[in-house]
Design goal:
It is a single chain. The N terminus is likely disordered. By secondary structure, the chain is mainly beta. The chain is 9% helix and 47% strand. It has a 22-stranded antiparallel beta barrel.
Amino acid sequence: MKKIFLLCTILLFAGGSALWAQNILVTGVVTDANDGQTLPGVSVFVKNTGIITSTDIDGRYAINVPSNASVLVFTSIGFNTQELTVGTRSVINVSLTFDTVSLDEVIITGYGGMKRADYTGAASVVTFEKLDNVPAMNVGAKLAGSTAGVQVASTSGMPGAVESYRIRGMGSINAGNQPLFVVDGIPIQAGDASGFSYAVSGNSLLSSFNSADIETMTVIKDAAAASLYGSRAANGVIVITTKKGKAGKTKFSFSSDAGLTDMAINWRPTLNGPDRYDLLYTSFYNYRISGGGTPDVAETFAKTNADTYGPKPEVGYTDWRKVLLRTGNFQNYRFEMRGGNENTKVYSSFNYANQQGITIQSGYERITGVINLEHKYNKFTFGGSTNLAYIKQLVNSEGTSYSSPIMGIAMTCTPSDYPYNKDGTINVTDGFRAFPSPLANPLNSALLNYDKSNLVRTSTTAFANLEIVKGLTLNQTVNFDFYNTNNYVWWSPESNDGRTAVGVFQRYMINDETLISKTTLGYINSFGKHRVDVLAAFETEGFYEAYTYANSQSYPTEKLYEVSVGAVTRASGSHSASRMISYVSRANYNYDGKYYIGGSFRRDGTSRLASDIRWGNFWSVSGAWRFMQESFFSSFKHILTEGKLRASYGINGTLPSGFNSYLKLYGLGYKYGTSSGMINSSVGNEELTWEKNNALDIGLELTFIQRINLLVDVYNRDTKDLLYGSPLSYTSGFSSYTANIASMNNRGIEVEIKSVNINKPNFSWVTSFNIAHNKNKILYLNEQISSDTSRPFQQYDDGVQARRIGSPYYSWWVYEYAGVDPETGKESYYVNKEGREREITTVASQADRILTGSPSPTVSGGLNNDFYWNGFDLNFTLTFSLGGTFMDRATWLQTNGGANYTFNIAAFNKKEDMWKQPGDKAKLPKYEYGLQTAAQPSTRWLLSTDHLRLKNFSLGYSFPTKWVQSASLDKVRVYVSATNYLTLMKKGMYLDPEGRVDGLMTYETPALKTITFGLQVGF
């Protein structure tokens, strides 16, 4: 309390007094340590004061300092900052060492680290110093837009939802496309912890790690380091290093932020009551006129039906968005301790976060605790870390579930339906127009039912490190990762979900355990101009999973819901296990800091494959040339200060997702009459093996005028032996079996630019920009399809996507929309049959579909800016995407009035844009009841995902050091920050442009924008 009072007093009265001391005149010359040349324009200032000067054209400076205890700070763009205590000196000459942001950052591979200058692969490093105040509980929100070639898409805007990551496109079909996440050298599980799929959001395992505990994140894109992870690295590797203790004074920090959340865009807007009534009237009127009725008969018919399907209730029209949605909130509290001495270092943090979603049934509460401890004794270092997380997630049904509030506001709840009766009670007596059941009120379902999960996760690591002789180090690391998920779903007998079964209660419990042991022996040394870095490792991994599912129905009361209360109960369960043994080696060599060569080899053996082929070899070779270190480039040094050309090639893989996919299995628990029996449950394939990724990367890294860093990468990925369904005769009892029968290619280019625009003591500005292009295409499917030229398509997904050799995996297979027919007002399509490509018809079955477009963007990237001025800091990240398309799969709303008279009506159905009479060149077709019962999948419903989004934003102010130090504090900062605050997109786009990876959009919870206010205190 005393400290707070003192701080407030200083804030109010600072500047009211002055400290007088005798000034000391200090002079000197500042030079470049590399070539001895003098440096003009170097900033020289007295630390913690406003006293500042700069060097002249000859590198000389003169400055008055208050006392001999003062500290002089020398800064210049492209050089390392130096701080020197004045003491008794009046002349201080300084040599500044060269520094570049890109070539001096450290690349962490999980098997050691090295400076970018020595690294021969393609990787991007993201530090979280500038992003600690971004109001997000997951890693993806902070990674988005930070590095080229990485796409982050959320399956849902539900709090705690699983995110999809793509590094250089998709490299698999059925074995998963998520990268491998490695935390402090240990691969972790980072998928979905949920046992149910009523909500497409899932429960993210990665979110069990607090992103504020992350020190750096390295995205490994090519094979140079990814092949070190062998059979799990085909989709890239994201290496996370967490914060550790530091020698010095123990420091504590506390931070807190709170704010509000809402939809990031105006998602699927609908017509209000009067406008909907008017359009229904038009629909029925046009129907009767088309049937030969007179205007008077049509008017009577239209009014009768509009009154039936769009009446104004006694309680008035309902805005269901206000009923089923709310403004969510976010609060986050974090305490951190960091300190130690030369021998013992410790870091610990505690975090509590709570996010309330925009629907009644959505929320995410998380408690995490971390402790990292390290102790050194002579040549022996040992320590450990533990991450604990407890998570409670509440979700609502999504997709096309009629109890989904998201679907309700867009489709099933019309303004003519009402949630409450006149007396204020919940309406469970009048059926809704979309669903006649009197219990179809989604508000009733939201208040009675729930879908919740509790997740407990602990990841504990212990390590011991022994320096045998100088440069030779032996390390042993053991990690145990455990999580338990309990999912509970309750459908009350008084809700529409549970009325038929008289109440349904479901429970799903999952236990996952992973034990990893890693032993490494590494040697690093220099011999004159030669430097070697070699490593050998032996690893084992054991994985065990068990689940239990229970379902009970027919409940005597809705007040008690547990499995044992229901009259009809069933249960199931299983357990699975897998093992892996790996041998790893790596060698790097460089000569004179100019020429680099590296290689790696890994041999994996897994129980997921048949014994004869369960061992696989994965390798990489890479090299680099720092050509600016050559003497014959010295004349360009004043412009191009650093330059490196590098290349890598290697093979890594992806394991089958199933533990026993290669086995022919029987399933038990089935009845044959009154006796127990079994069935054939799996065809098996003993030739099943890894998917193999052959990756080539060529990169160029340049640094201009000591302040602009440019990275360019060109790559090619051929993924072979993809797991895919091979057709079987139905007489076998199966339609297909899994085999390695497909191949795919991804190729592209990535560009990253980082510039230090201004670097003054009181003002700095740093910009980073990245852009990437990736092209995906299928190379091969299987012999049957590849040799059958009459069947160019392999498979249809949901009726709107097809697979064809030479095209992207996600390709739209739809009719080509030709606009509105001027004579009839109907939708028209290009025929696209041979010789009749641009002919037009209003009958879709007379046309041929075409492959056109993909949800994958042509280019994507991000722009980040960091500003600092006199205690104020401003950071913002823009993300963008061009060239992709989504498909609106809500076909029941796309019938031009033909079949959606019982549903809500999308706001894009504007009466003034519709066809009215022959000869009209209208934007929208004729709106008419009965005109069409099902929407045709056409390019009309492909929506551009082109957008520019203000992904992250923060504005903060740090109080002057002398103010906070007088209150015995180290730091006090206040800030405001936001996520997804502003989105610019194509006109008419009513879906969030950062939606599902496959582009099939229905009623997923859209992305949320969050605005928070925060405080950070260090002491």
